[in-house]
Amino acid sequence: MEQKKHKSRVAEKKNEVIGGLKDFGTNIYNQLDRGVFPTISMPSRSTENINYDPHLRQFILGEKSVSRSARNIRHVKPFTQLAWAAMFSNELTSQRKTSTLRDVYYSAQAYEMTFKDQQESNNIITDLETVTGYSREDFNIFPEERSAVFGDLTIEYTVPGYEGKTLNLTSHPDGVLIGPALTSSEFASTTADKVIAIEKGGLFTRFIEENVHTKHNSILVLTAGQAPRQTRHFIRRLHDELNLPVYIFTDGDPWGMHIAQVIISGSANAAHLRELNTPDAVWSGVWATDIVNYKLPTDPLDEVDIKRLYELQRDPRYKEDPLWQREIKTFLKIRRKAEQEAFSRYGLTYIVDEYLPTKLKESK
Amino acid sequence: MAQATFEEISASDFFYRNRDIAGFTNPSRAIFAAIRELVENSLDAAESQKIPPDIYVRLSFESEATKDTQIYKLRVEDNGSGIQPRFIPSAFGQVLYGSKYKLKQMRGTFGLGGKMAVLYGQITTHQAAYVASSTGQAKVYSFKLMIDIQRNRPIILDRKVLINKDQWRGTIVEFTLEGDYLRAMPKILEYFKQTAMVNPYANLTFVDPKGRLYKFVRATMDMPEPPKETLPHPYGVDVELLQRLIQISPYKTMAEFLKHHFHRVGDITAQKFLEFSSLSPSKNPKKLAHEEIVRLMQNMKKFKEFLPPDASCLSPLGEDLLRAGITKELKPEYLVVHQRKPSTYAGHPFIIEVGIAYGGEIPKRGSFVIYRFANRIPLLYDEASDVSFRVINAMNWRRYKVSPDMPIAIVVHICSTKVPYKTVGKEFIADRPEVRREIANELREVSRQLQHFLSKREHVDKERKRLSIFAKYLPKIAQFSAMLAGKEKLPDVDKLIKSVQKYGAEET
Questions:
Q1: For B495, which of A24, A29, A35 is closest by C-beta distance?
Q2: How many Å separate Cα B133 from the centre of its chain?
Q3: Where are the domains of chain B?
Q4: Which residues 53-72 of chain A have a CB within 8 Å of chain B?
Q5: What would the CATH number be for the domain defined by B319-447?
């Protein structure tokens, strides 16, 4: 069994994050110490400042920046909230504790810092991401949503109490949750030579049952619909640190297509962040042309689907690869869509035995 | 005079049968009316001598009367002018006897308030009234009186003359009456409070049947100028008055008659008017036929060149006293008062005084608190029918950034030789266009000033809020940034907070 050696960035990144937070605080502290109202500036996240960068192959924030001054009556409260959020993240990160967005909202009250609602506290966390350039997961603040991974990858925990312990991700047949402990782990070893990301839980289970991980030497990732940010970052790490190609299987409709696109090119909402996308990942199906070629059972596209297709047609991310425009046109021509489960009309194993190998070959 | 109208029954008998007219409608209303009439007599008695009134009212429980009513003893003492002994029996024992049939601003006008109260006491308890009075001379005279209702004459049961060692001056009235104090209590207390508001130079003391003491202390010794008596204005006369004037007049020509019996009529005006009415200036008024008198009255109303009545017969409170009274009773955060120039309706001069008060002890109740006064008497009933209420409701308050949710009290005082009451109950002012216009203009004036105050206050509030935000957050920024930077010592933000304050002070 070949062991893939890699250089971990987990510990290194933690230090960077803590350093970034400290710099942020020191900057404010020094301004106050000089007797001036502290000011901070950060890139603007308004729509007109979000541009697609064909070079990075993701959305990025443009030149426009906004500044927050403690001098301004409308800014002083969010400014304080931001300083609090930085301080709180610093505590979490250095004490290696994790938290959720909901938790943040309540923790603030211990400092007599009130947030009007969850949305306000979420916005402040996004501000902190923008101003430091790190994502909230780097500050150990995780959303509630979870997805899963299965395959021959051995990880080494870094969370308190588990440091040095390892786990092989085939050890549980339901897969392992992609949560804080997993995303903060180092990759120890793997025999896999590819990553297959799957939209739906049913198919993920089928793939495990049919031993796709050994048959195709792969790590299986369940995105559970639109992939959470930590899952997108996890896929990126699998690609970057283990040099594994990534293949994405979704439903054959505009929504499935876009799940793949976000894994590949990222989202506008995360334009202030990096390394959440995997530009080299490939959408392997289900394509509109597959619906035709495999004569899959279909449903008609409804109005919302059609509207979405026209939107996507204009989206810069869909202009990168001719594949996207071709598939959008095919969808619009056939006016049908198909789910991944549609392959079951040819028997339960058809998708694994026939479709998957063909598509993997096609995608290379 | 007026007795002559009722030939079959006496005036006492008439009011005995129609006591609703005078406000003695039911046991609760009666006890309120009795107190009110006597207090107002006392105020008039003191004011006529320019003496700041000291009035003591005691209502004490005597016995149970019916399931809902009790017998009370009412005692009212004042430091007023006192009454000459020979007038005392008639003043309290003869209805429609009094000195109030002249043209000047007075509290009552029927001349029956005090007597009606005594009469009511007599018919409900069959007991004599006690009256003592002195004009401050050597003697005090006291009487025990009843009223012979059918003959409208006082019956003197007892008469005493005492040596006035202390040079006391004033009048004491004491009698029993049936009433329902518990039900009347809120109105009676409100009456005292409002009376105190519009008579800020008076001391009012009230001891109720439970022995509770209510004291309203004067805020000033200044009193308004007393009104001067005046002749009737031609616009305001009726046929009856014309006939009476002709009867008593010593003048033999129309020109002289007009000149000497009417307000603001001189030689020239009289001449022009007689021309207008096609009457010879030398005609003897006593020779006028009835139809001619009627025509004369109609022409007086049509003639446009009479000078408007002057207001010397009026005694408004004045802005200073109104302010003192409202301040004393409501302790408002802000108050503006205003008095308008005299105006007239139907030949009667009147003056409107208005105050608008904000905050302090004024309750927030979703609508304005309205205090209505007429000739320094509080009007406590039928608010919704009053012209002030209508004008206030018709105002576009939003224009003045004022809303009924605010703790706002509006005070409207009308002074007139003839207050335009709508009904004999004398509880609300009729909606006359002249009066309405004056009240509306007055309200606009004070509302503009209130608006000014409110917007200034809003600004100050905003500023205070703004400062508190900096004072709250800047220390926290210091704390959080020190924690992040790993510093022990917190940066000093006091100077920054102060700099915001200074900036704030400049802004206001």
A1: A35
A2: 25
A3: 2-216, 234-302, 319-447, 454-507
A4: 70
A5: 3.30.230.10
C-beta atoms surrounding B269 within 10 Å = 18
Contact A32 B495 (CB under 8 A): no
Kindly state whether B482 is in contact with chain A, defined as any CB-CB distance less than 8 angstroms. Answer: yes
Q: How far is A94 from chain B (nearest CA, A)?
A: 11
- Beta carbons of B493 and A32 less than 8 Å apart: yes
* Tokens representing residue B240 in the block: 């009856």
Task: Give B357 to chain A, closest Cα distance, Å.
Answer: 33
Tokens of B296: 């004369």
* Separation CA A279–CA B65 (nearest Å): 101
Q: Across the interface, do A22 and B473 touch by the CB < 8 Å criterion?
A: no
Residue B360 one-letter amino acid: G
Cβ neighbors of A16 (< 8 A, separation 6 or more) are A134
Euclidean distance between the first and the last CA atom of chain A, given in angstroms as a whole number: 24
Q: Which residues in A lie closer than 8 A to residue B466 (C-beta atoms)?
A: 73
Say if B2-216 and B319-447 have the same CATH topology.
Answer: no
SS3 state of residue A362: helix
| B487 phi, psi to nearest 5 deg | -105, 145
CA distance A164 to B247: 126
CATH topology of domain B2-216: Heat Shock Protein 90 (3.30.565)
Is 1.10.8.50 the CATH classification of the domain at B234-302? Answer: yes
Instruction: Say whether residue A110 is in contact with chain B using an 8 A CB cutoff.
Output: no
CA–CA gap between residue B281 and residue B258 (Å, rounded)? 10
Out of B486, B491, B493, the one facing A22 most closely (by C-beta) is: B486
Chain A CB within 8 Å of residue B468 CB: no
A346 tagged catalytic: no
Whether residues B476 and A83 touch (CB distance < 8 A) is answered with yes
Selected residue of A22, A23, A26, A29 to mutate for chain B interface (largest B Cβ count, 10 A): A29
Q: Please calculate the CA angle A334-A336-A341 and round it to the nearest 5 degrees.
A: 135
The interface pTM score, or ipTM, of the predicted complex is: 0.78
Q: Is B494 on the interface with A (CB under 8 A)?
A: no
Residues of chain B found within 8 Å of residue A70, distances taken between Cβ atoms: 473-474, 477, 496
CB within 8 Å: B484 and A76: no
- Asked if B481's CB is within 8 angstroms of A25's CB, the reply is yes
Contacts A–B by Cβ distance under 8 A? 79
List chain B residues with CB under 8 Å of A112: 476
Domains of chain A, first to last = 10-142 (1.10.10.10), 190-363 (3.40.1360.10)
Who contacts B248 (Cβ-Cβ below 8 Å, separation ≥6)? none
**C-alpha of A179 from chain center:** 12
Tens digit of each residue's pLDDT, chain B (508 residues): 334 443 456 667 776 677 676 678 888 989 998 999 899 989 988 988 889 999 999 999 999 988 889 999 999 999 998 888 888 888 877 665 544 434 556 665 445 667 888 888 998 899 999 999 999 888 999 999 998 888 888 899 999 999 999 899 999 999 999 999 999 999 999 999 999 999 999 999 999 999 999 999 999 999 998 888 788 888 888 888 888 888 888 899 999 999 998 888 999 999 999 999 988 889 999 888 889 999 998 999 889 888 888 888 888 999 999 999 999 999 999 999 999 888 888 878 899 999 999 999 998 888 999 999 999 999 998 888 899 999 999 999 999 999 999 999 999 999 998 888 887 667 889 999 999 999 999 999 999 999 999 999 888 888 888 889 999 999 999 999 999 999 889 988 888 888 887 544 444 3
Question: What φ, ψ does residue B262 adopt, rounded to 5°?
Answer: -125, 150
Catalytic residue among A106, A111, A346, A350: A106
SS3 content of chain B, % helix, strand, coil (to 5): 45, 20, 35
